[in-house]
Amino acid sequence: MSGIAVMLMAAIFLAVENVLVRVLFQGSWFGGYWVGDVLPADFAHTLLFVQWRTLVMVLLLALLSFKFYSPTFADIKTLVLVAEKRRWLWLNILSGGIFFVNVLLLYFAIGNVPAGIAITLFFIHPVAAAVLAWVWFGARPSKFRSGIMLVVLFGLVAATGHFQFHGEGNLLVGSLAALAAGVGFAGYATIAQQCLRWVHPIPFSLIAFFIMFLLTSISIVWLQISPPVGTQIPLLFWSLLSGAVTLAGLLFHNMGIGLVGAPTAALVGASEPVFTSLLAWLLLRETLQPGQVLGVLLVTIGIAALSIERRRKD
Questions:
Q1: How far apart are the two ends of the chain, measured CA to CA in Å?
Q2: For residue 198, what are the contacts with CB-CB under 8 A and spacing of at least 6?
Q3: 37-50 pLDDT, tens digit each
């Protein structure tokens, strides 16, 4: 399988994950049966789902680590015990904390906003990352990059321009949550990039997922959240399915980076909003207005253009 094909598989798996989350919260008809609609699409139950799903991912990744990177637990032990390495452990823990907030906000957004639009709004993160690089590292964007960033922002406005932002679905809060998740992800990616220079991706991900599980568990105990009556088995099923699909997408993504390099991987990954919108249309019958379709395409083209510019620089 070619590197581009591997990256396309990663984008498709992650798009499927987005649709699964939408079905979990809102439900949909499949083959004459109503499926999903397991939990209300509020912050408390989003937190509950993130906890169950993250536990699945921790267990699955711990098992897969023996096949894909056997020194995983030895590396983690070194990070904990060796003082010179502890800086990277703290950065890893910080990344996990930020990622916890990002995932919570993104899943809340998907539960309240059409999946394709939520992911399109989330993809403000490359623009936010460029701004953070300018503020933190003095890497001022070129005129070309600034122009592309304006195109992306125009696409985000077009994607949400049809919403009335009232009534069912909490569209305004969901849209703001998606944007906040994208901005937060830019911070996460910036910190993770520094940490991944010294920590292998598998122990890095395992620590980050464990921190996510720990934070969700503390939050659930503190807020006294429990699954609604009769939802435990469906919630377990959707958590297993979601965790497996997400891990598959991440594995394909990491494989693709090794085959084609990070800039090309980012270029292909820009197709995720389009794949999510197509899957939501095919499976959930979520239709977008022409202006929203234009917004999704502008964001996708803009992110692809930013990736091409970075590839040329590299």
A1: 25
A2: 85, 88
A3: 899 989 999 999 99
